[in-house]
Amino acid sequence: MIDVRNRTGRKLAIGFQWSFNESILQLKQDILNGVYGKIKQFKTIVYFPRDLDYYHRGSGWAGKRRLNSGEWLLDSVASNATAHYLHNMLFLTGAQMDRSSEPAVMDAEVYRANPIEMFDTCALRIVTADDTELLFYATHAVPEEQVQDPLFVIEGEKGKVTLQYENGQEIMTGCLIDGQIIHYKPPGPRHIDKLYCMGDAIREDAFLPCVPETVLPHLKCICGLGESFPETPEFAGEYICYSEDAHQYTCKGLGQALMECWQEAKLPYEKQIPWAYKPHKIIF
After folding, report:
1. How many CB atoms neighbour CB 24 within 10 A?
2. Which of 84, 139, 184, 265 has the most crowded CB, counting CB atoms within 10 A?
3. 3-state DSSP call for residue 128?
4. Where are the domains of the chain?
5. 124-136 pLDDT, tens digit each
6. If you compute the radius of gyration of the chain from its CA atoms, what whole number of angstroms results?
7. 3-state DSSP call for residue 13?
8. 2-157+183-233+242-275 homologous superfamily
């Protein structure tokens, strides 16, 4: 894609919508300006429950490692529905507005409750080349009533940023150690921003914050997971539940377990959760 863009001189952006969001871009500029000092830790958690209809939609490619033609697909909770939030951690800690931080080492736990080739649940600890710790927890395997839109906490030497919800409202706030509070607009969905941004780039040669080079670190993480786990571990049988009414596989107690991991910045294996396996260490 990069080669074709360079050869043709065309505009090319990648549609991770938060990377085009005014609020996220303001936060990134603040981080680059040193408002929060060096970022030490960034942790995100998100639950998007999905049923079997989700995995059976279309030609049945969802959750597959490869297409029937043999081409790589690596479809998982981390590369599809919640990919935006894994990418967002890499994006916000990147050294330039259109670059993301590079993963150096990743300790990874992936699991599945669904009968799929890839994983519907992950807990990842990524240490970037700049020695920032990124922790990412995501799952499809919780009941519908446990849906959890993304929460994150960014810890810097001079303060922290939180994305949380109060009465269903998204609130993103920076708190500096000197007591200063920075209120950001809620990032929200705003899928249309990326199209406006591309229109401006075509008409006025405006800056594109998310180009192919920006998303390569996320792709490296996804490929690393695919290579490190040629077969996805399944949750122990006694923890897997199936709801005929919801047409959904879930893991008993998973929502609470991952939330505790996120709060304590630990992986499930470190908390000795019964279904957890020792994480795979991936070196980039």
Report:
1. 24
2. 139
3. strand
4. 2-157+183-233+242-275
5. 999 999 999 999 9
6. 19
7. coil
8. Dihydrodipicolinate Reductase; domain 2 (3.30.360.10)
